[in-house]
Amino acid sequence: MIFGRVKSLDAILATAEKKSLHRSLGAFQLTMLGIGAVIGTGIFVLTAEAAQKAGPGMMLAFVIAGFVCAVAALCYAEMAAMVPVSGSAYTYSYAVMGELIAWMVGWALILEYAVAAGAVSVGWSGYVVGLIEHTFHLDIPDLLTRGPFDGGMVNLPAMLIAGLVTWLLVIGTKESASVNAVLVLIKVAALTLFIVLALPVMNMDKFTPFAPLGFSGISAAAASIFFAYVGFDAVSTAAEETKNPQRNMPIGLIGSLGICTIFYMLVAAGVIGTVGAQPVTGGGIPISEGGIALAPGSTALSQQCAALAAAGTEAVTCSKEALAWTLREIGWPQIGNLLGLAAGLALPSVILMMMFGQTRIFFVMSRDGLLPAMFSKVHPTYKTPYVITILTGIFVALFAAFFPVGILADISNSGTLFAFAAVSIAVLVLRRTDPSRKRPFRTPAIMFTAPIAILGCMYLFWSLGVETKLMFVGWAAVGLIVYFAYSRSRSHVGRGVSDVPELDAGIPPQPVPPLPGAHTPGGQDA
C-alpha cells in the first residue's frame, strides 16, 4: 500500500518529449552555479542564532551541515538526472516510491519553501531596519519590527517585503540570470569585505571556551545552519546538461559546498574573533559558573538582551543584523551600513526564488489531483497561478510577522531534511528494483553514500529543538488526514489518468540559475 500508485517513469519521460539538452557545463561552471545558488542568505540571517546555540563551536557546525549536504546532493543528482523534468523531490518520489510518500514529501516541501521565505523576510527586516536606524539616526520601536517571541508585537517590514514579493509574482515577474548574477556578486563582495576587515583584528582569546554547551550545542547549531546551504540542489538538477557528469558532478557539488563552507567558517571566525560569540545566559552568569544559556528566539533571551543593551554591553547573539553590527563594533560603521544595504538588495531575490518553488509544487500537486483544481488556476491577463501565489504570500507574511528567524529556519529545515532523506532512500530502492534504468549520473559508492546521507539527515533532524520536531509531526499528521480524506480519492494516478503537469504551460518557472548562459535546472528555461 505504502509504495502503491507510482507515477510511471516511462510516462514522465515520454510526455516530456525532451529536447536533449546541450551538455555544456563543466566542473568550473557547476562549481560557480553551486556557489551562486548557496551563498549568502543563511550566513546573513543565522549567525547570531548559531552563536547562541554553540558559541565559537559554530565553526564546526558549518562543516557538519556542509558534509550532510554534500552526500545528500550526490543522491539527489542521480534522481534528478533520471527523472529529467523540472520537478523536485516530490516528482522524484512519485516516480519511485509512490503517491503516499510523494504526498508526504510535497507536504514537507511546503514547510521548506514557505517557511524559509518567511525566515528570509525576517532576516531582511533586521538588516534594513538597522540600516535605516544607523543612517538616519532614528529609533524605530521594536513593537513594530519584531514578533511577539522577540520582544515586539508584529514585524511590519518583514510582512511588507513578503507582500511585495507576492505582488511581483502575481503580475508575472521572473528572475533573470543577469540580475541574479549581479546579486550573487553583491553578496560575495559584502562577505569578502567583512572577512578582510574582521580577520586582521581577531583576538584568539575570544575562541575559548570553544564549545560552551558541549557537542550537543554544536549539533543543534548544525541543524539550524543547514539552512545556509539550501539551494545546492540547483547543481544536482543540472546533471543532464553536464559534460562528463560522472566526473564533473561530484567536483561541482563538493567543490561548491567546500568553498561555501570555508567562506562561512571565515565569516564565523571574523565574528567570533572580534566581538566574541559566547551564548547569552540568564542573569548574565557565565556558563562556567553554572549559568544557563537562553533559548534562541525566546522571550527570556529578548528580555536579557534588552537588559544588556540598557547596560551598554550588547552581544552579537542579540543582534538582528549580526554582520553589520560586528563591523560597526570594530570601527567600520559606514561599511556596516553598506553590508546592510547589500543584504537589503540581495535577500528579496531569495524570497522570490523560495516562493516560486512553493507555488510550483502546489501547482503540480493540484494538477496531479492531490489538491483542489482552483489552486492551479491561471490568471487570464498575467498568466500566473495567482490563487496559490496569493495564498502562499498570505502565509509567508504571517510567518514573517509573528515568528523569529531561528524558529522559522528550524521548521523549514525539518521539511528539507525529510525530503532529502526520502530522495536518498528512493535512489537506493530504485537501484534494487530497476537496475537497468538509464542513469546519466550514478551516485558514487551508493551503498556508502546513501546510508550516510539518510543517517546525516536523521541526525540533523534529531538535533532540532523539541518544539520544531513536534511541529513537524503535527504538520505530517495533518498532511495524512488531508491525503486520506481528500487527495487519495481524487488522484489522477489513482483514477488511471497519466499526465505530467511538470510540463504544463502555466506552471511557475524554476528558480533561475545564478549564471548568465546557464540553463534553468531541470530542462525548461524560465
TrEMBL record:
Top-level lineage group: Bacteria
Keywords, comma-separated and alphabetical: Membrane, Transmembrane, Transmembrane helix, Transport
Subcellular location: Membrane
A single Gene Ontology CC term: membrane
Transmembrane segments: 27-48, 60-83, 89-106, 113-132, 152-170, 182-201, 213-232, 253-272, 335-357, 386-409, 415-433, 445-464, 470-486
Membrane topology qualifier: Multi-pass membrane protein
Main location: membrane
Keyword Metal-binding: no
Molecular function GO terms recorded: amino acid transmembrane transporter activity
Classification via PANTHER family: CATIONIC AMINO ACID TRANSPORTER 4 (PTHR43243:SF4), INNER MEMBRANE TRANSPORTER YGJI-RELATED (PTHR43243)
Protein name, UniProt field: Amino acid permease
Species of origin: Sphingobium terrigena
Organism classification: Bacteria, Pseudomonadati, Pseudomonadota, Alphaproteobacteria, Sphingomonadales
